[in-house]
Specification:
two-stranded antiparallel sheet, 362 residues, seven-stranded mixed β-sheet, alpha/beta
């Protein structure tokens, strides 16, 4: 659905990281006037990418930082709040392995509640929350010792003022060459309209998205901007050079992941795995710089001798493209490749965010 807005919307972005999800919002008629994040590096990159946005760096669980954010807003009318809190506390691995999400008591899971003081102070017409679908199962502290799920809390606190919609959208259904399921909760002031995004007729495959880029091997640099390959451990390169498109090195008869003593490493079949050309990219995660992470290796091309090209993770250019960003966009040169990849992997695919925001009727 095309954007119907006749007037521009001012927005506040919370937990904005470097603002990946904000990249196309100006085209959607939305001006992010203030953004905030806890990490100084993220705030610095955000300021470089969006010099016209006031960036407040600090922990918004602090009342002082909340006041700083509201001071930065000043007298500007904020019609929209964008809240994309981190999701690491909902991980089902590590200390949380085997635990039900409703029983995990991790303060990071409750950061979404820090949005409420800004809603109460600024009274926006629209609010959008984005997170992993698991967030819907987490019980959060509320009221006098109660623990409720987020939709129950939102309905109790804001149901009289806002229409509340909750959807799980996959970015691959909205023109992004990446499969990424996220929950979007939208609050729309009663009397206003916020239509659902229109799904694309077909998904964009990796072949369509990055298939025209030249092959480069680990450590090589292309003449194209942002298109250079990370250098990986020699043994990992060897394993992946013998791994076909769409397959894991764990499936190889001889060149499989092994320890220095020759014993086979135990691992899942989505590790040391090449992507498939005829599908969108799997979800881009924060650890997209290592080949052992899930589904992170370039699809590669057959060299005709049992070997396969591009035994590496995606280049920054390819990574930007599968996030629906311009592959040749200007990136800060004073931030490490690993940090940039992490920041990009944390973001909402901006084309997906734009299509959701386009549904606002004004």
């Amino acid at each position: 659905m095309a954007c119907r807005r006749k007037h521009r919307i001012n927005a506040l972005s919370l937990f904005s990281c470097i603002g990946v999800g904000e990249y196309y919002l100006k085209r959607a008629g939305v001006d992010v006037v203030v953004a905030t994040d806890i990490d100084s590096r993220r705030c610095r990159v955000h300021g470089q990418l969006y010099p016209s946005t006031k960036t407040v760096c600090g922990d918004i669980t602090s009342d002082d930082v909340k006041r700083d954010v509201l001071k930065a807003v000043g007298r500007k009318k904020i019609q929209m709040i964008i809240s994309t809190p981190p999701c690491q506390g909902m991980s089902s691995v590590g200390k949380n392995k085997g635990a039900a999400l409703s029983d995990i008591d991790d303060s990071r899971n409750y950061l979404i509640l820090e949005t409420f003081p800004f809603i109460d102070s600024l009274s926006p017409d629209y609010v959008i929350f984005e997170n992993v679908p698991q967030m819907l199962k987490v019980k959060m502290p509320w009221g006098d010792g109660e623990r409720l799920k987020i939709l129950e809390i939102l309905e109790a606190k804001y149901g009289g003022v806002y229409d509340i919609k909750c959807d799980i959208f996959n970015s691959g259904d909205y023109g992004v060459p990446q499969t990424r399921e996220r929950v979007f909760i939208r609050l729309c002031r009663k009397g206003l309209s916020w239509h659902d995004p229109k799904r694309s007729e077909k998904q964009v495959t990796l072949r369509e998205a990055i298939g025209n880029l030249p092959s480069i091997e680990p450590g090589e640099v292309s003449v194209l901007k942002n298109h250079w390959a990370r250098l990986h451990p020699t043994n990992q390169i060897e394993w992946l050079r013998h791994t076909p498109t769409g397959c894991s090195a764990f499936m190889n008869d001889e060149y499989y992941p092994r320890k220095s003593n020759g014993d086979k490493i135990k691992g899942y079949l989505n590790c040391y795995k090449r992507m498939s050309w005829d599908q969108p990219s799997p979800t881009v995660t924060m650890r997209n710089e290592i080949m052992s992470s899930q589904d992170k290796v370039h699809p590669g091309r057959s060299l005709g001798n049992g070997l396969w090209s591009d035994a590496r993770v995606l280049t920054l250019r390819e990574l930007l493209i599968v996030m629906s960003l311009p592959g040749d966009m200007e990136l800060p040169n004073d931030i490490s490749d690993t940090a940039l990849r992490q920041f990009i992997g944390e973001g909402v695919p901006p084309l997906m965010m734009k299509k959701i925001i386009d549904g606002i009727e004004l």
